[in-house]
Amino acid sequence: MQVCYNSRVMKSQVIKARNIPEPARQPYTIHVKPVAFLTLLGLAGLALFLTRGPWVGVGLILSIVSVFALLMMPDRTLMQFTPEYMVLYNNRDKSICTLIYWEDLVTWQYEYHPGSDLLSCSLTDGSVQTIELFSKRPVARYINLYAPGKEIRSVRRKESDPR
Fold this sequence. Notes:
three-stranded antiparallel β-sheet, 8 strands, elongated
């Protein structure tokens, strides 16, 4: 049974990525690949390698792994945030995305799971949009900035917890 929280027509919808409205300013984007962390890891590895101490091997390995991840592994956009809306790029078809206006967001919850975490957004028409993520911090920062007070706090549970 779906619960409708509002009788007005909802602006949020699934659209082609090329039809996203032009934002007033540059949107904040969350990508799959943690570029800043991998760059820092590479620089730390390079520093260890250049010390010529007992950590040369570790430094070399860290540098190689970070350069490989930065250059060879694919990256894609997961989400974008603007003051008017957020965009979820979680469809199998990469040309389609979900545009969610902040006024259509009823609640959101970040659920912790062993493999990857899940962001669930409940909308005014009763539908729920979900996306797999790996970190709550940047997501929570922007959703709480543009849609404050709509978070449902979740507790971390172990996989074997029967609740």
